[in-house]
Structures are given as structure tokens and as C-alpha cells.
């Protein structure tokens, strides 16, 4: 495994409610700035990754590590959640049996991502995203060892 992981540039589909929700959740937790987010869904988006088209980026999440290594699929989530101190969320997907299952299930999820009901996406991301935003706002009120109480 490469030692120069971060910053990790993630290419994702912002037109997908599930994808966008997950990335917004990560963005709010990205306080150390180890992740860079790029919406690859716009019309005419030109992929900066060699031999990778916009269609490739839309069919599976891609990321580029600081050393230039391209990673795809579930491994992107493992590294992204690790970068924001939530590696425990994806840790089980690195276990041998679950890794195979996750790596096989991910393409099925991607193909069907637009069919996932709104309430499922809301349950997975809107509550956690709101809590992350509240924590980020609280941190922003603390400066030089003192905090302003609202």
C-alpha cells in the first residue's frame, strides 16, 4: 500500500442523492482537509484520470491518492472514512469474507442507486449530516482556547 494517500481526490456523482448525501457527510467531517471532492456528473466533464472517461467515473466511484495512484470502488470509501476518523464505519468491509461480498455488491448498488427510496437516503445521511454540521458549527465558535456560547 502506498504511503502518500492524502489528500485523496474523490470523483463522485452529485446528481445521485445517495452519492451526494454520502459526500456531504464526509465533507462536513473533513476538518483536516485530507479529502478533495470533485463532482464528475456535470455535462461535458472531462476526466483528469488517464484512460478513464466520465462514464467510467459515473459507473463507479474513483479517487486519486496524493502519489497519483487511482483507486476505485469500496476502497475509496475505506480510505475516505479513515481520513475523517471514522474508519470503523468501513472496517468490516476489509475483513476477508466481507471484503469479497462488499466488492461484489458495490457495482450492483451503483447500477441501482437512482432507485433507492428517498426515505432510505434520508435515514442514512440526513440525520448524520445534520449532526456533523452542528458539531462543525460548534467547533467554529471556539477560538484560542475559549468558546462563545449561543
- Give the class from helix and strand content and strand pairing: alpha+beta
Main sheet properties: 4 strands, mixed
**Shape designation:** globular
Assembly state: single chain
Spans of at least 5 consecutive residues whose pLDDT stays below 50 are none
Number of helices: 6
**Mean pLDDT across all residues, rounded?**
87
How large is the share of residues in beta strands?
5-15%
Number of strands: 6
Question: Going across the major beta sheet, what is the strand order?
Answer: 2-1-3-4
N-to-C series of helices and strands: EHEHEEHHHHEE
Report the span from N to C terminus. 45 Å
Helix content: 40-55%
Round the Cα radius of gyration to an integer and report it.
16 Å
Question: How would you explain this protein's 3D organization?
Answer:
The protein has 150 residues and is an alpha+beta fold. 48% of the residues lie in helices and 13% in strands. 21% of the residues are buried.
Compile the SSE list and pairings.
Blueprint: E1 8-12, H1 17-29, E2 35-39, H2 54-59, E3 62-64, E4 70-72, H3 74-83, H4 87-90, H5 96-111, H6 118-140, E5 142-143, E6 146-147
Parallel strand pairs: 1-2
Antiparallel strand pairs: 1-3, 3-4, 5-6
Helix pairs in contact: 1-6
